[in-house]
């Protein structure tokens, strides 16, 4: 029982890590490479703050692929624990220390939130695009000068000293194993963040949704998810010749998917769908789903279908493709029946010809025998007379 429980926990952990990784990347292919350790999808910026009589830490988790802040923690106060924290320390140890401070109440939530909001505003997407190449080289030198004035303005402080380091890591692993979880909440992006980004780039244009507001694509996806208890991530079976184009897909039409069994989540989904036998062999047969619709924008297209047992099948494509559909079994059966009938017809048609040939041959033999007998009789008659 314990072994089964351990395996279930392991599968759940893998599924959770996959879900968290997808939030930091654009495609399933990138998520797979992150989970396999081929690429790293984020940075953790560690900033130590000495502000007048206060001390603290700011941890900023940044997606290096999507180029935005995923989580931001600001913990500032009077706890003596702050003094022993060093920016070069392991991020797990730093998070553990901050979690302990949160449990003992040794920080000021109001000041911490003001600082967190100021950091959010300072690290716009444009600013992150400038900093990411430096962080790739482990160069944190510009962080202090970017944050000093915004933090002073947010806290009305006088003296400030900042120290910063940058770690390259997996964003999903940090979030999943975070010791602060349930003790210290991340600081949310300010409601006026989209306006700040707008001022920093092009006046009058804002492409970022405000806090709590879903993008158009997210709203479309949410509509499909709302009617199903469980969602399975799949791969579209593509058929460039016989497939159906996006524009010609109709609701209820059967389309084909495959389970990406090269990932732990895929193996779990294959088991859920009954594609793994008792010997552990995985069936290569495609999974049939009834097409529901496509949620998309110019860079990604989310295909949704209803699969077996009311599972929501979900695949993502970067551009429109021709989707494979099941081969109609009735046509195949008809073709087989047709060929069989044709063969039978040939046999039936040949039978009379063969019978007529047999009859002709037999008649010819009888006539020959009759002529022979007559000639033999005439010969005997002549010999008797003579």
Question: Would you spell out the secondary-structure blueprint of this structure?
Answer:
Layout: H1 2-22, H2 28-35, E1 42-51, E2 54-63, E3 68-77, H3 81-84, H4 91-104, H5 109-122, H6 125-136, H7 143-155, E4 160-169, H8 171-176, H9 193-200, H10 216-225, E5 231-233, E6 235-236, E7 254-258, H11 264-272, E8 287-296, E9 301-306, E10 312-317, H12 329-385
Parallel strand pairs: 5-10
Antiparallel strand pairs: 1-2, 1-4, 2-3, 6-7, 7-8, 8-9, 9-10
Helix pairs in contact: 1-2, 5-7
What does this structure look like?
It is a single chain. The protein is built from 12 helices and 10 strands. It has 386 residues and is of the alpha+beta class. It has 2 domains: 167 residues, no CATH class; 109 residues, no CATH class. The strands form 2 sheets. It has a 6-stranded mixed β-sheet. The protein has a 4-stranded antiparallel β-sheet with strand order 3-2-1-4, sandwiched between helices. A hairpin with a 4-residue loop joins strand 2 and strand 3. The longest helix has 57 residues. Keywords: Membrane, Transmembrane, Transmembrane helix.
Structural class: alpha+beta
Number of domains: 2
Helical residues, percent: 40-55%
- Give me the number of helical elements: 12
Radius of gyration based on Cα positions: 38 Å
Runs with pLDDT <50, length 5+?
Answer: 193-212, 330-357
Instruction: Tell me the strand order in the biggest sheet.
Output: 5-10-9-8-7-6
- What would you call the quaternary organization? single chain
Per the principal axes of the C-alpha atoms, what is the gross shape? elongated
Q: What is the N-to-C order of secondary-structure elements (H for helix, E for strand)?
A: HHEEEHHHHHEHHHEEEHEEEH
Distance between the termini: 119 Å
According to DSSP, the number of beta strands is 10
> Biggest β-sheet, characterized?
6 strands, mixed
Proportion of beta-strand residues: 15-25%
Mean of residue pLDDT values: 81
Region (Disordered): 333-356
Keywords: Membrane, Transmembrane, Transmembrane helix
Transmembrane segments: 363-385
């Amino acid at each position: 029982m314990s072994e089964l429980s351990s395996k279930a926990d392991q599968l759940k952990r893998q599924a959770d890590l996959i879900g968290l990784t997808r939030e930091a990347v654009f495609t399933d292919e990138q998520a797979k490479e992150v989970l396999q350790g081929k690429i790293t999808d984020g940075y953790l910026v560690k900033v130590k703050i000495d502000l007048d009589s206060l001390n603290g830490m700011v941890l900023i988790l940044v997606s290096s692929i999507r180029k935005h802040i995923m989580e931001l923690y600001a913990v500032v106060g009077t706890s003596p624990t702050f003094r022993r924290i060093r920016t070069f320390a392991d991020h797990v140890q730093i998070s553990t220390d901050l979690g302990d401070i949160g449990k003992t109440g040794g920080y000021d939530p109001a000041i911490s939130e003001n600082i967190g909001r100021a950091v959010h505003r300072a690290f716009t997407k444009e600013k992150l695009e400038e900093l990411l190449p430096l962080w790739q080289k482990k160069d944190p030198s510009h962080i202090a000068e970017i944050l000093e004035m915004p933090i002073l303005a947010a806290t009305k402080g006088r003296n400030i000293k900042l120290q910063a380091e940058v770690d390259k890591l997996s964003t999903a692993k940090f979030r999943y194993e975070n010791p602060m979880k349930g003790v210290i909440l991340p600081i949310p992006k300010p409601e006026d963040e989209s306006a700040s980004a707008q001022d920093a780039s092009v006046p009058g244009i804002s492409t970022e949704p405000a806090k709590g507001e879903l993008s158009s694509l997210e709203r479309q996806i949410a509509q499909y998810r709302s009617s199903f208890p469980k969602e399975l991530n799949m791969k579209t079976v593509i058929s460039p010749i016989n497939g159906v184009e996006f524009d010609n897909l109709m609701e209820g039409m059967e389309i084909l998917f495959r389970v990406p069994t090269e990932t732990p989540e895929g193996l779990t989904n294959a088991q859920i769908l009954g594609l793994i036998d008792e010997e552990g062999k995985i069936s290569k047969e495609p999974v049939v789903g009834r097409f529901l619709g496509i949620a998309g924008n110019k860079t990604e297209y989310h295909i949704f279908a209803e699969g077996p047992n009311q599972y929501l099948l979900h695949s993502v494509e970067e551009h429109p493709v021709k989707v494979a559909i099941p081969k109609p079994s009735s046509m195949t059966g008809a073709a087989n029946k047709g060929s069989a009938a044709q063969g039978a017809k040939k046999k039936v048609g040949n039978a009379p010809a063969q019978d007529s040939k047999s009859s002709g041959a037999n008649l010819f033999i009888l006539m020959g025998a009759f002529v022979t007998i007559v000639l033999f009789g005439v010969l005997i008659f002549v010999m008797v007379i003579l």
